């Protein structure tokens, strides 16, 4: 066969030379075309792309409590530290990979912030073995202080284009559900929850739905803040759907079922596998509807029902007394919750709008996966975070040695937000963050008018709240108080609403709340923001209101230095009495030679009565000094005139009594500065005030000896009394002062 090159040569070398320019031009064009083909393909399908971003956050804490247990002001978690001093830095890396139009991967890698102080010098050394690890003392031997980096969340999202809209496998914050049923996970835990989640829609998206299988958090989602020993199969299953019939009407439903199981110890035959048995089950169902009459009227209603069943063998059958701590109730319970919200948007066209809410959250309503912090389910302001615990200093169990306040006298600086669970989460927070409080058992109405006119904004509130937990002996007078299935936590004493307390054995409580907020921009310079607030709470609680519940029969304590007759026990039903809680006092002679009762006997229904008149007002101003810098300052005053039982009641025998007059002051300075992707923030607080106790009479004053003075930080010879459990309550006026600062730098890249 004749080679092609030879045939071309036979046609003549001159012809080849003649077409040389055309050949070169063709080759160049072919080269360009070949080069462009991959580019065109890549334009259509660029392939996987990985995007990496992140945040670095540095926090500075300074305070006069001189605590340094951790880089957070507050926690109640056993073994964890808290503090108001220190500097620490954390790093967060955010990963996003779009593998294809149908597949996306997201991940987050985060350093642990807890005890990583700058003074750790990199986290080297430390106590080994790592025991009682706070303040970074365990160094490299404790993951809370060795500056390790942890995988915090990883998820894969699939969008197949048929059957479903999307499927998520992995980490999620559960934010698309309902805070009464399955609530959004709080910010610092936003990737801790893991689930298999499907989302879909039909009928041109008039019908949307979500379905999920969520692994139960073993650290808190069950009785006793635990899901038991066998946790790998524990899960909550959720489904919600919403149908939008028109712009005016929509209706939906939601369901959640949580199943916590243990290995059945009675199944000893392992040859055919091992059976499981339920430890805790929780079912919640709800229906919701919305009516939307254009831009001027919006009405939404919801009704929920819950079922909670904790096995009395695999979890606590009761709490052994009126205290006790748990994320859910013991035993078997069911209850309902109802919500109705209405908004009128300037119906008179004068700048005046109205918001209304009717609510009733059942005393036995339990949703183990409800929002613990990241949602405010009620319209009312509720209580103030400044008074968060029973004691005047915000201490719990403060009558005992070694129980000082954690959050401090100043508390949290804003009003509370309400959540529909007793499993409230304020742990690992700082004073500048909002305080969450349980609203279990609350029922009532809130009216909230809002007026705007140019630079003026006004908002008001009136709320009337009564309680589904208004009962005597937990609503069951045939049962011992020690067998209660309701965890009392800190119980309900003190100025404010102890944030995780929903239950006390005797309650007859009503709350009235009035508030007014105002803001005005003064047309001076760039405009000065002037703002203020007034709030008044009137609250009564008769607590025990039936004489058959008094602990002893009339005349058991005759007075006059005569010992009480403890045999005259009063039973409210066969074998049941309150005398185990409210025991009689001893007769004592104090150091001054006075003889009488150690504390007042509980012989009158008024001994535990509560009456609170609480007033607070705030005035402040803010100014935008530059495009990047905003500074504000405010002053708040808190008055509380409180009768919270006398020495017969003594704050359920476990806390500092708070009956008397409280006068608290709070000065705040806030600043924000933005510089090309870096944000700086600062909040400084100075809190000072006094508490003048008034615990009534009927007892002999005692005087602190050297031991009491050393244990409780009071002066030798100062007045007080020793309560039933040996705790000390001071009768002297107390003066408080606290200063603290939080500053931060946040850079995103």
Topology:
Blueprint: H1 4-10, H2 13-18, H3 20-44, E1 49-63, E2 86-100, E3 103-111, E4 149-158, E5 166-171, E6 194-202, E7 207-215, E8 235-244, E9 249-263, E10 276-293, E11 297-310, E12 332-344, E13 352-361, E14 416-419, E15 435-438, E16 442-453, E17 456-467, E18 509-522, E19 528-541, E20 587-589, E21 595-597, E22 610-624, E23 629-644, E24 660-675, E25 678-693, E26 702-703, H4 706-712, E27 719-722, E28 728-730, E29 734-748
Parallel strand pairs: 14-15
Antiparallel strand pairs: 1-2, 1-29, 2-3, 3-4, 4-5, 5-6, 6-7, 7-8, 8-9, 9-10, 10-11, 11-12, 12-13, 13-16, 16-17, 17-18, 18-19, 19-22, 20-21, 22-23, 23-24, 24-25, 25-29, 26-27, 27-28
> Structural class from helices and strands?
mainly beta
- Secondary structure tally: strands: 29
Shape: globular
What is the CA-atom radius of gyration, in angstroms?
33 Å
Helix count from the secondary structure assignment = 4
Largest sheet report: 22 strands, antiparallel, barrel
Q: What does the average pLDDT come to?
A: 91
Cα(first) to Cα(last) distance is 68 Å
Q: What percent of residues adopt helix (DSSP H or I)?
A: under 10%
Low-confidence stretches at least 5 residues in length (pLDDT < 50)? Answer: 1-44
Beta strand %: 35-45%
